[in-house]
Amino acid sequence: MNSDEILSKSVKHNLWTWTAQRKAEVLPVEKAEGVYFWDTNGKRYLDLNSMVMCVNIGHGNKRVQEAMIQQIRELTFAGPHMATKPRALLGEKLASITPPGLTRFLYTLGGSDANENAVKIARDYTGKFKILTRYRSYHGATMGAMALTGDYRRLHWEPETMPGVVHFLDPYAYRSSFFPDSSSVDEETFSRAYVDHLEEIIRFEGPDTIAAVLIETVTGTNGILIPPAGYLQGVRALCDKYRILLITDEVMCGFGRTGKWFASQHWDVVPDIITMAKGLTSGYAPLGAVAMKEEIAATYDDRQFVGGMTYNGHPVSLAAALANIEVIEQEGLLENAVRRGETLKVLLAELKEKHPCVGDVRSIGLFGAAELVRDRASKEPLSPSAKPLSPVMKHVKSYILEHGVFMYNTFHTLLFIPPLIITDAQLREGFNVVDAALEIADHEIQAGLE
Ligand SMILES: Cc1ncc(COP(=O)(O)O)c(C=O)c1O
Fold first, then answer.
1. CA torsion, points 367, 246, 111, 229, in degrees to nearest 10?
2. Which atom number of ligand 1 is nearest to the Cα of residue 113?
3. Reported confidence tier of residue 95, pLDDT bands at 50, 70, 90
4. Domain 62-330 falls in which CATH fold?
5. Residue 26 gets which letter from DSSP?
6. CB distance 36 to ligand 1 below 6 Å
7. For a pocket test of ligand 1, which of 214, 250, 251, 317 has the largest count of ligand atoms closer than 8 A to its C-beta?
């Protein structure tokens, strides 16, 4: 099939997600290897978004491919109630990398249903109903996960989503309404204010009605928001005080993205439940999981877990996950995320130093963001909305793609989420392109372009 046919037939028979069909920007992709992929015309792209923030081990890994092929040959499918070799091995492996005590796993198809199942389990375990999540969060696109999501994507489906979700504010230093100039307070004071804010909400909502607090440990698409010192510990303490479960959504920030298996390990906080997907298989097959403590799983010793889908625990996905985790271990990808993460920090700082349009930069491991602004003093975002993007932001985006770098942006924020195998030279290759795009943005802003 030639390039035009692939594109035209894909467009003709497909309904694209998250976009109007006529405005869909479709990239016809042919092959992928390492940190690169190629379109059907042979153009190469440096993948600074790990495709959908998921290809942590990089593209085309032979070991994972072989494990999947072997599983397909041995046993392509088995029902969700069957014991299989990959189920046995993956459970054991996951239990060895999750924080202490989280040793039972429910397998799902992805991140959204992992979060919905975590909610079901929390409600069954506590006998309580409400779930508290933050405004600047994304927890998935199914109806319940949309209700959990705090950001603008939820609004479209309201009020017909899952009832019982209450949102609270994020400890987001660059745009804090409690501390407009966050540099004037130390991190502990800053964290304390946001923990106190959560406690006030818990009291008003009634601790006896709240089953769980569910948060992205490090917020992903809403701009790589890293919890300030003391914050996660403070949330954990509140959950303990009011007998509320702490669920951390590590769908994007898990599996080495931040330099640890799970981001909560940076703060020595052990959640009651962790949801995961994406980096669990590095996107080689669809899979999510809900990790939980034994005492929570014991809820279902003598009573039914009312839930389950045909493909829960698909053997090919489980085999992919197992091989993927072994690759992360054997190729030292946690260590590489830490080391290359230091380079990412330096490169982001250089961007900020050089370009007036960079208002703030943040990163942890290979999880970074640059927030673009029209004016550093007012912090006015370079694009106030996603659709349509402002002309200058559109130019930044299209320049970067035209010059062979694939990235994701949330409104005015560029995200840097490369595969964990990336080298310093490859990071620099990407940053050179971003640097040139921001040069143009600086000039356009100065010239008064919207
Ligand atoms: C933090 C977070 N949670 C949940 C999800 C939903 O995962 P999925 O798209 O696999 O359903 C995503 C997807 O981007 C995510 O980033």
1. -10
2. 11
3. very high
4. Aspartate Aminotransferase; domain 2 (3.40.640)
5. -
6. no
7. 251
